[in-house]
């Protein structure tokens, strides 16, 4: 007993030493949540709400790191500690170094597995790494992955020693803004609409044990409110002979709603009598339990999930199409949400901080968020599902290779390419489309996502209608906005205009598509003491110097929205933006989330008129 207590004290002393050695770096502004981050508590939440298991190990915390030239081999000695899952450029990483395209970022971590995991297949999950990753376990190469926004998994069972400490090494390359990969607003030279790059691990790393014989890897859930049923497709980790069955149970809290049994990798339709529909006003979620059995009737796996019964569609009203939720017209009004943080960049300091942004957006009277050229972690979507806020999901833009003098991007379509460039572009397009498909596949079940946006304006835009048709085949349950704020294409469901003037341009009405303002607003108001860099140009599309001027400008734009909705058939609008981001000061909140620039109650009351039925008979 005395030995165990001594060992525990040693562990606590070591952990306390780590905590004392760790601290955020730099002199930038921080959110209040940054002060609460430690190596022991960093991002401990289960990372995959749509497919949960009881047993798992979180590998977030302090890892060793080294930033070396690409031509150097795997380091024998590392340069220090980095706090995962924060990118190396961020304050919360504890490093705060800029990475260049000519460098390679190395990580190393030791871990131990519980004794009762020895008979299981062990899966190593990376929720997101920017951009190209290679992984070794105990010195043996396991595999590689390219893409900054999707989860990837390696079966590391055969690489484990199983008798003590195991070692994981990760190498990351990142072309940043010199490459053609999907990267959103990252650029080495920041300013204007371009932000600090994100390199390396930026979402949770974790382990889970599954049965060696068979396990579930995914479940595809499709609600159908027209026929009062939900279609469930449980998929195995790898194909197996027939005879593996999955029992599917639907719950309303603790009450069983429906049950069914289906062969693995086959879909089953499950009736839902008198379904409770998901909406921003009533974000009801059904719970789902799946149990996998082998041909002998032995239970091999159990996972939990959830879904919402809802339908997104278009409906003709008078002379134009309008957006509908559950067959009822509903105006979409939301914020353009970049998902950036002064302390963690792409990674919020905590789950609580991430949820705060969504809660504040909802409290302000918005019912939608346009997630702008970034894909968040799965828990962000879970909070949107639970809180009841619709999501327009952008595909992160890529293949933007040349900026104009004003800092805006130039589409690859406007550039003359050599034969070598064309080959590179073909490779980039194939990678872009693979990542686009991954984004849709991984988030297919998310009730709050109501629209996919493959292209923002002309950023890297190409083969638009072919890509839109591909999205519609992948996911016929949602709307597709072909190119937000750019040239009209004869495909997709949305006519989208961006308008940043003091007087908003009116999108034309359409008998084929819903007319929306995909971006508007952008009213800048810099708040002293809450600026990313007081010395840089802090800008908005219009700039004001007081809360009153800001509110007056906001009211002027909002009154135009109301008129457009009532008399011009406008279906939706996206206000730029949720928070300030680096040099952009057009947020409703400051970058550190410490100042709300317009009172929440004022916004809530103002916005409510958008969700009321129109006097002329148009929908809500």
Characterize this entry briefly:
Belongs to the glycosyl hydrolase 2 family. One of its GO terms (biological process) is carbohydrate metabolic process. With 620 residues, the protein is α/β, with parallel strands linked by helices.
3D structure, described in words:
Residues 352-484 form the Glycoside hydrolase family 2 catalytic domain. The longest helix is centred in the last third of the chain and has 24 residues, at 419-442. Helix 2 packs parallel to helix 3. The chain has 620 residues and is of the alpha/beta class. Residues 1-19, 401-405 and 409-418 have low confidence and may be disordered. The protein is globular. The chain is built from seven helices and 36 strands. The protein folds into three domains: 18-210, Jelly Rolls (Sandwich), CATH 2.60.120; 216-307, Sandwich (Immunoglobulin-like); 312-611, Glycosidases (TIM Barrel). 46% of the residues are buried. The strands form ten sheets. Strands 30-28-25-24-23-36-33-32 form an eight-stranded parallel beta sheet, covered by helices on one side. A six-stranded antiparallel beta sheet has the order 3-2-4-10-7-8, with no helix packed on it.
What secondary-structure arrangement, pairings included, does this model have?
Layout lengths: L1 H20 L35 E2 L2 E9 L10 E5 L18 E9 L9 E6 L2 E2 L1 E6 L2 E7 L5 E4 L10 E8 L26 E2 L3 E6 L5 E9 L4 E8 L8 E8 L2 E9 L4 E4 L14 E8 L5 E9 L4 E6 L2 E6 L2 E2 L2 E6 L13 H13 L4 E4 L6 H10 L2 E5 L7 E2 L5 E2 L8 H24 L6 E5 L1 E2 L7 H11 L4 E2 L2 E2 L9 E6 L14 E8 L1 E2 L17 E2 L3 H21 L2 E7 L23 H8 L13
Parallel strand pairs: 23-24, 23-36, 24-25, 25-28, 28-30, 29-31, 32-33, 33-36, 34-35
Antiparallel strand pairs: 1-12, 2-3, 2-4, 4-10, 5-9, 5-12, 6-11, 7-8, 7-10, 13-14, 14-17, 15-16, 15-18, 18-19, 20-21, 21-22, 26-27
Helix pairs in contact: 2-3
